[in-house]
Design goal:
The protein is mainly β. Helices cover 0% and strands 51% of the residues. The protein has strands spanning 22-26, 29-32, 35-41, 44-52, 58-66.
Length: 67
């Protein structure tokens, strides 16, 4: 995975990525360490990401992506 800013500049170094281990495939979901991808249909997915908050506790945040 690579992260990008709004101007498409990368967060990581040019040739670097962040790799996540696939934990499980189940139905329309792929479970990775710290996030899940859910296929809604051919042109839409939801991504659920565990993001650490200021208090140190993770909060699940949903991102919806459409073609």
């Amino acid at each position: 995975m690579k992260h990008f800013n709004g101007n498409l500049s990368g967060w990581e170094e040019k040739d670097k990525t962040i790799d996540f281990k696939l934990a499980k495939l189940e139905g329309n979901r792929a479970y990775f360490d710290d996030f899940t991808i859910e296929r809604i249909n051919d042109s839409e997915i939801n991504m659920y990401v565990a993001i650490d908050q200021e208090n140190g506790m993770p909060e699940e945040v949903k991102f919806n992506y459409k073609k």
